[in-house]
């Protein structure tokens, strides 16, 4: 209850977004084929893999990266690394269509010259999830994060600044773009287990792009 109880009601009703979150429904649909081709090209050079958490569990979402650095986790912890630990090579460069989409979305949300240096790509098969966490491995929390959902829908869990704050639930569908910045940048968030299904353009999976300024 309290002040944040109805945080997502305006989003769902298509009215003004709460501070720190801009929802751009279907914003990525016009470029979906370019995005999917770019993701396939990245995954050819830097394959999706189920990374190990510091606790020793494999993540249920498979991940890869493109950009100057990539987000990795292993027994040593979470960090951004210039090299893909699986190939020993630099991550593939950020495709122009991703940088451009992120810049346009951030501008719509009031962030004038957002230039991501990394895109983390998450792939969820039905049953995969992401438990509540904060994104705090980036250097500059004043930069926004732009996320793009493709394929199967999912329920986004949006908590508060404490892990124990009960999360709100926001349905995300193919093509949705969200810009997170300012007051929400350090909120706990996650993805509920993805439901079984098959998306006409993407198949039996959900892909999520998060474009970030890590350096
Ligand atoms: C809110 N990914 O990769 S994207 C992640 O759908 C991650 O794969 C989820 O959380 C996914 O770290 C959610 C939306 C998102 C991304 C970053 C945030 C929401 C955020 C950072 C702060 C607050
Ligand atoms: Fe996250």
3D architecture notes:
- It is a single chain.
- The chain is of the alpha+beta class and 215 residues long.
- The chain has one domain (3-212): Alpha-ketoglutarate-dependent dioxygenase AlkB-like (Jelly Rolls).
- The chain has 3 helices and 12 strands.
- Strands 1-10-7-12-5-2 form a 6-stranded antiparallel sheet, with helices on one face.
- It binds N-(carboxycarbonyl)-S-(naphthalen-2-ylmethyl)-L-cysteine and fe (iii) ion.
- N-(carboxycarbonyl)-S-(naphthalen-2-ylmethyl)-L-cysteine is lined by residues 120, 122, 130, 135, 145, 147, 178, 180, 184-185, 187, 189, 191, 208, 210.
Counting structural domains, the number is 1
Residues in β-strands, percent? 25-35%
Strand elements, count: 12
Strand arrangement, major sheet? 1-10-7-12-5-2
Please state the oligomeric state of the protein chains shown: single chain
- Radius of gyration, in angstroms, nearest whole number: 16 Å
Structural class: alpha+beta
DSSP helix count? 3
Helical amount: 10-25%
The name CATH uses for the topology is Jelly Rolls
CATH architecture verdict: Sandwich
Helix and strand string, N-terminal first?
HEHEEEHEEEEEEEE
* Spatial shape: globular
How many strands, what sense, and barrel or not for the largest sheet? 6 strands, antiparallel
What is the level 1 CATH name? Mainly Beta
Query: Quick one: CATH superfamily?
Result: Alpha-ketoglutarate-dependent dioxygenase AlkB-like
- Arithmetic mean pLDDT: 94
């Amino acid at each position: 209850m309290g002040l944040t109880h109805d945080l997502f009601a305006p989003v769902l009703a298509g009215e003004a977004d709460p501070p720190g979150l801009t929802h751009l429904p279907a914003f990525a649909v016009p470029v979906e084929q370019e995005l999917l081709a770019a993701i396939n090209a990245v995954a050819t050079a830097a394959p999706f893999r189920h990374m190990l958490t510091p606790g020793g569990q494999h993540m249920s979402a498979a991940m890869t990266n493109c950009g100057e650095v990539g987000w990795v986790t292993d027994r040593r912890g979470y960090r951004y690394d210039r090299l893909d630990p699986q190939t020993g090579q630099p991550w593939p460069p950020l495709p122009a269509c991703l940088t451009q989409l992120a810049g346009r979305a951030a501008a719509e949300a009031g962030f004038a010259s957002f230039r991501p240096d990394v895109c983390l790509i998450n792939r969820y098969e039905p049953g995969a999830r992401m438990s509540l966490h904060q994104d705090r491995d980036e250097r500059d929390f004043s930069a926004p994060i732009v996320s793009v959902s493709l394929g199967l829908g999912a329920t986004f869990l949006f908590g508060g600044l404490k892990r124990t704050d009960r999360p709100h639930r926001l349905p995300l569908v193919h093509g949705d773009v969200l810009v997170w910045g300012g007051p929400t940048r350090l909120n706990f968030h996650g993805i509920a287990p993805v439901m079984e299904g098959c998306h006409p353009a993407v198949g039996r999976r959900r892909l999520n792009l998060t474009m970030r300024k890590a350096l």
